[in-house]
Specification:
Helices cover 30% and strands 22% of the residues. It is α/β, with parallel strands linked by helices. The strands form four sheets. Strands 13, 14, 15, 16, 17, 18, 19, 20, 21, 22 and 23 form an eleven-stranded mixed sheet that branches. Strands 7-6-5-2-1-11-10-9-8 form a nine-stranded parallel sheet. It has a six-stranded antiparallel sheet with strand order 12-24-25-28-26-27. Helix 15 (471-482) links the parallel strand 15 and strand 16 (486-490). Helix 10 packs across helix 14 and helix 14 (428-441) packs across helix 17. It is globular. The model is unreliable at 4-8 and 684-688 (pLDDT under 50). The protein binds alpha-D-galactopyranose. Alpha-D-galactopyranose binds next to loops.
């Protein structure tokens, strides 16, 4: 692979394929075997040094690079490229022993001890100085090493300690607030400190939202979330600028964790800071819909990357070590997981990790090369996947197109789940996934985008629970509707402004004109309550958890609450015409069936092709090349063969299709259709 600040690299022979490689855990005798087996598996990229601070800087300012020189040379000589880490992800014991003040604190004031990893306060000046020096040393040593094609900055920033309540963090929070507000009076307004006698006279009085007798000021909490995400971003920039200054021309990345489980980091704001968006994704073994959550994570990552190809930096070949029951994956599930990421825009597939550790906290975590060795079904499956990823190199650079967008807002997520709300068990991602699942099940690809993304190209824009809404976001949604898109907005949207305060006038604040309704009262329901709704469109449907007392302004009702309930007779689903578009509002939590009915109706209404009666186990996604050629991924998550209409060339087997394709249970097919029928078939098929 060529080293280039451009991404993707046009000269790449196949998809990127590899893993985290931790040679420092092994006797050097193992390295030759590692590299030989990497070649056998088709590995072309490894992430080296992620946790090797203690092996590189063996004591303060004493650096030992001999071992890393040998590893990088060995990889280079075998044509394997390196994503070289800054090695900052786990400070060594000598550092925390000499400087215990760099350790992070929890909201109750307790210090997180060393002994694990990520044991640092990301804003502590001493930590930052050590991390910068280490990064500079590594960058200086390897800036001209031809194996190094990518910088891997730290690792999963904020993964273990997203919030630090230490004194260092308090000082950084105050500085951040000073930049945001300028004067203490502005802050007092934004935080509405006239409530509960919280008025500040100067920034020095402000603390992080540490454990307090009762609810801490919600805007203080929200700003602490913003600040905490920015604190990691600030650190990321420091590492990036350090390597860029010393080694310009080598692209930088860091591994995001864009999933429904990682809430603390606003990756939409981070993406433009790196040359390549990379993501880590792990499925939850106990979740029957883990493949749908994976699809969402991949669509979100593509949204973060603004549609450009991205790299799957980590996933697992089989079991992990951190869930309640670490159920292994089947080899077929690994294949499906990997290729589902490629289908949704990944141009590379990497795992944690190359060789299973013999000791340490992750010794039960699967790897490409398992403890069982090469005479194992997992190793054979890894080799097969490597061969497939070589075949799929032609896909690199192609894009995923979608006519549906889902607005996803980290700030709305943070704010909507704050305490002292109408329902303590409100979940932002619950509706996100309930809606996403409907599109997945109909084979409709969704771009997951921020609220300020250009929406003009979409026919349908889904807006789950946009509790916090900025004026820019409200205008953006209104523009999309006026220019002809259909919008679907769900309850508890438009409630607060960016300061977590109600805008003047009735709810839904800045979305009143868009939705054409007013909401007089939020009406969370008792646990056991199921509401019936009546609709001429959808018949009798059900809802639970939440309801709102809605007054129509310009919208018309589509469904009413029914039965014995104070809201009975009031509108539950409404539609408002705005410009050339329509804006639907759902003021309750619809059942799964009712959500499906609404989504299906909107898809048909917007003439978006959907496969209503397809097998529920089938996943279909298309990537398209600039020249018009397409790659259709068909993933069979079920237990029976599925026959679909397809013509073109199936890339994994190399076979030409005669109009139909049968995808075996648990398997994946990738169908190439050239832009022009005169194009020759690709000479890459083989029986794998
Ligand atoms: C994360 C980390 C890895 C490893 C895996 C285990 O993704 O980045 O270092 O700990 O989790 O699943």
């Amino acid at each position: 692979m060529n080293r280039s600040a451009e991404w993707p690299d046009a000269d790449r022979p196949g998809l990127l394929f590899g893993a985290d490689y931790a040679p420092e855990q092994w006797n050097p005798d193992t390295w030759d075997e590692d590299v030989a087996l990497m070649l056998e598996a088709g590995v072309n990229l490894v992430s080296v040094g992620v946790f090797s601070w203690a092996s590189i800087e063996t004591s303060p300012n004493v650096f030992s690079f001999d071992w890393l020189d040998k590893v990088l040379d060995l990889l280079l000589n075998n044509g394997i490229s390196v994503a070289l880490a800054t090695a900052t992800a786990s400070p060594p014991p000598w550092l925390t022993h000499n400087h215990p003040e760099i350790l992070p604190r929890q909201s109750d004031g307790s210090v997180l001890s060393p002994g694990g990893r990520q044991g640092f306060s990301v804003t502590h000046p001493t930590f930052l100085a050590y991390a910068k020096r280490l990064t500079a040393q590594i960058a200086t040593r390897y800036r001209d090493h031809p194996a190094v094609v990518l910088w891997h900055l730290d690792n999963e920033l904020g993964g273990h300690v997203p919030f630090d309540y230490s004194d260092a963090s308090a000082a950084a929070f105050r500085a951040w607030l000073t930049r945001r507000y300028g004067t203490i009076e502005e802050l007092n307004q934004a935080w509405m400190t006239s409530f509960w006698s919280q008025r500040y006279t100067c920034f020095d009085e402000i603390l992080p939202p540490r454990l307090a007798p009762t609810y801490v000021n919600p805007t203080q909490q929200l700003d602490f979330s913003r600040y905490s995400s920015d604190a990691f971003l600030h650190y990321l920039r420091m590492l990036r600028d350090t390597v860029r200054e010393i080694a310009p021309g080598i692209p930088v990345t860091t591994n995001f964790m864009a999933t429904t489980r990682i809430k603390a980091l606003d990756y939409f704001r981070w993406a433009s800071e790196v040359d390549l968006v990379a993501n880590d994704h792990y499925t939850i073994a106990a979740c029957p819909e883990r493949h749908i959550e994976l699809a969402f994570s991949a669509d979100l990552t593509r949204g973060i990357a603004r549609g450009r190809p991205w790299l799957l930096m980590e996933h697992s070949t089989s079991a992990v070590n951190w869930q309640k029951r670490n159920v292994p994956k089947s080899c077929d599930e690994m294949l499906r997981n990997s290729l589902a990421h490629v289908a949704r825009g990944a141009d590379g597939l990497m795992f944690f990790q190359w060789r299973q550790s013999r000791g340490g906290a992750e010794k039960f975590h699967s790897a490409m090369l398992p403890q069982a060795g090469t005479d194992s079904s997992l190793w054979r499956a890894v080799k097969r996947l490597g061969a497939i990823s070589r075949c799929l190199g032609v896909i690199a650079g192609s894009r995923v197109q979608a006519r549906v967008a889902m607005v996803f807002s980290y700030e709305a997520w943070w704010a909507s789940e704050l305490d002292s709300h109408p329902a303590a068990d409100f979940s932002y991602t619950e509706r996100v996934m309930a809606l996403y699942r409907c599109f997945w099940a109909r084979g409709v690809t969704v771009d997951v985008v921020p609220a300020d993304a250009p929406l003009g190209a979409y026919d349908l824009v889904v807006v789950p629970n946009l509790y916090l809404c900025s004026p820019e976001a409200a205008d953006n949604l209104e523009d999309a509707a006026r220019s002809g898109a259909t919008l679907l907005v769900t309850y508890f949207s438009g409630v607060v402004d960016i300061n977590d305060q109600f805008p003047a006038g009735p709810h839904p604040g800045l979305l009143r004109d868009l939705l054409g309704v007013e909401v007089e009262e939020f009406h969370p329901l008792r646990e056991e309550t199921v509401l019936t709704l009546h609709s001429d469109h959808f018949g009798r449907i059900e809802a639970d958890f939440w309801a709102e007392k809605v007054t129509l302004r310009t919208a018309t009702p589509v469904a009413h609450f029914d039965g014995d309930h104070p809201l009975s007779g009031g509108p539950a689903i409404t539609v408002n015409s705005l410009g050339r578009g329509k804006v639907w509002y759902i003021a309750t939590r619809l059942s799964a069936e009712a959500t499906e009915s609404v989504v299906t109706h909107l898809l048909i209404d917007a003439s978006i092709e959907c496969q209503q009666n397809r097998s529920p186990d089938l996943e279909t996604v298309v990537r398209t090349r600039d020249d018009g050629a397409s790659f259709t991924f068909i993933i069979n998550h079920g237990t029976t063969p599925t026959r679909v209409e397809q013509s073109g060339q199936e890339l994994i087997s190399g076979s030409q299709l005669d109009g139909y394709l049968t995808v075996q249970p648990g398997q994946v097919a990738v169908v190439f259709r050239p832009a022009s029928i005169h194009t020759q078939p690709l000479a890459i098929g083989r029986d794998l």
